[in-house]
Amino acid sequence: MLQILIQGLLLSGLYSLIAMGFMLIFSVGRVLNLAYGTYLMFGGYVYFYVSQMLGMPKLVGVAMAGVMGVLMGIAKFKLLVKPLKGDHVAVEISTLILAVVLQAGVVLIFGDSSKILLPIVPGVTYIAGASVTYNILSATIASYAILAILYLFVRKTHTGRAMMAVSMDPKGTAISGIDSDRINMITWGISGLLGAVAGVFFASYTQLSPHMWVAPLILSVAVVIVGGIGSIVGTLVVAHIIGFMEVIVVAWFAPELRGVFTMLLIITVLIIRPRGLFGREEL
Amino acid sequence: MGLRWYHFALWAAFIAFMALLPELVSKGTLRTIIFANFLAVFAISWDVLSGRTGYISFGHPFLIGIGAYTSAILTKRYGFEIEVAIPIAVLMTMLGGLIVLLPALRIKGSYFALVTLAFMELMYQLVQVIRPDLTGGTRGMSGIPTLTRGALNGYYLSVTLMLCVAISMWLLMKTRVGTALSAIGMNEESVRGSGLSVTKLKMFAFLTAAAVAGLGGAFYVHYLGSVAPRALFDINFLFTIIVAALIGGSSTIIGPVIGAFFLTFLLEGLRPYLPGAERYFIYGGIALLLYMYQPKGLIEIFTQGWTRLRSRWTT
């Protein structure tokens, strides 16, 4: 029981971090970034390249991954979303194409085989009889810390509040003298940062492969649908629901079924309550 | 219905060209064309649903997969004749289409796209877990009875299927129902305001698309003789279908066909230079540039070029 609690918390922290970046873009820009998973892939590979192939310190690797994520997010906004003028369908399709292109690009540079990341923080500890690697523990703590900073940023700073305002009412914010293009660009950058850093942690949980972008994308989709648009707390709660659900399913039923319940949850919530459990009314 | 003599002349020329093609090209090219034909069927099915009504479906492999798996299980595990199994597979896929319709009655836009993606992923997970003795689990099935042998027969079969689907969908879209479906894509409220039942129209679109997808999926599995979950319920497969429909030109019938042939030959043409999965880099890059340049697709580029040429002649 205690083991499930610990495993669930560790997994949920990471899931919250992964889903948060996707939720931000969906709330503020109102577009689905189907290439979101490639931030994670990119972050993981940049970290791998910097820290393991170049042999630089691990923190530099994480920082580089974050910087690349920000640049990628801003580039996506400038090159894809702006020219398409926020046409939802066109952005969805072009980000889907972009994801496939980037996947192929990673295969081109690093090859098709999956790579194992060395743990960021080596060592193992025992909590209540369950073995927990320091690596996963520190990734979880870092995730929660990043989420707390993000929450404060959105609530306390002018830019963060402007982000929420754009997500609620783009016209009203434009009248109030807020440049929504600038806010959108900042949001894409933050989303890229969160995705890339989450990617380093995610890759150290599992492994690095050119196909690793699909699973986090599906997870983010699930969290955003169930949690609803524009709610940081909703995203956190739902990421925990899904994280714990997966851990419980693996522990009590069968490991193969872990994804099934998540998908069923999405479909049920969408049919019964389309705006999500914590979302605002708008459909 | 807005039918003109040159429509029939163009179709007849297209059919004659496809029938004569085996005389002109090698066996290897024929095999490539077979894949292009199946892709064209899938793209037409996607276009009937998403290109017309504007309900972007990311779950099309879900429908194709139901068709493929039903037919494969019936023939391989229960010894059904292929001729019996394919109609049953089409009916099953139409049932699947009703499942996809369910969320479409309440939600639209990005949410619908997301839930169809969830359907595809759910199917991928379920196929591996539930009754692996029937579905073959993660590894899928092989040794499924095939309809034909040899490239030439396979070519004629796939061309016939593709042309039948294309022409019947083209005629269907020329009717008032087809017009109403396109109108849903433009403004659903005004269709409802005109006194048409949007629910019935949507149901019609979903059932038609599902029937075509099931038909294509069932024939495809009996052409390949094998089926595997990772090849079918895959984002790359989904990507190819959607891009074929959009690159060619959605809301037309010939557009998805052109798109399917263009993409298949592009992928084959890159094979000598980039043998591995890397060619998806160039292939996706070209698709992305084309889509960003003209979201209405190749057919729009052709039409614009044609009008420009004509205006130059007349002046």
Number of domains of chain A: 1
Fraction in beta strands of chain B: under 5%
Helix-strand makeup class of chain B? mainly alpha
Low-confidence stretches of chain B: none
Largest interface, and how many residues on either side? A-B, 46 and 43 residues
Distance between the termini of chain B: 33 Å
Compact overview of the structure:
The complex is a heterodimer of chains A (283) and B (315). By secondary structure, chain A is mainly α. Chain A has helices spanning 2-28, 36-53, 58-81, 88-110, 134-156, 158-168, 170-175, 180-205, 214-227, 232-252, 258-272, and strands at residues 124-127, 130-133.
Protein described:
- The complex is a heterodimer of chains A (283) and B (315).
- By secondary structure, chain A is an all-alpha fold.
- Chain A has 11 helices and 2 strands.
- In chain A, strand 1 (124-127) and strand 2 form a beta hairpin.
- The longest helix of chain A has 27 residues, at 2-28.
- Chain B contains 15 helices and 2 strands.
- Chain B has a two-stranded antiparallel ribbon with strand order 1-2.
- The mean pLDDT of chain B is 85.
- In chain B, helix 8 packs across helix 10.
- By secondary structure, chain B is mainly α.
- Chain B has helices at residues 5-24, 27-53, 60-78, 82-104, 110-129, 132-135, 151-174, 176-186, 188-193, 198-224, 229-232, 235-248, 254-270, 279-293, 298-314; strands spanning 141-142, 226-227.
- Classes of the chains: A mainly alpha (283), B mainly alpha (315).
- Chain A binds chain B through residues 26, 30-32, 80, 83-84, 87-90, 92-94, 96-101, 103-105, 107-108, 112, 210, 214, 218, 221-222, 224-225, 254, 256-257, 259-260, 263-264, 266-267, 270-271, 274, 283, and chain B through 54, 56, 102-103, 106-111, 113-115, 117-119, 121-122, 125-126, 128-129, 235-236, 238-239, 242-243, 246, 276-281, 283-285, 287-288, 291-292, 295.
Question: Which descriptors would you attach to this protein?
Answer:
heterodimer, A: 283 residues, mainly alpha, B: 315 residues, two-stranded antiparallel sheet, 15 helices
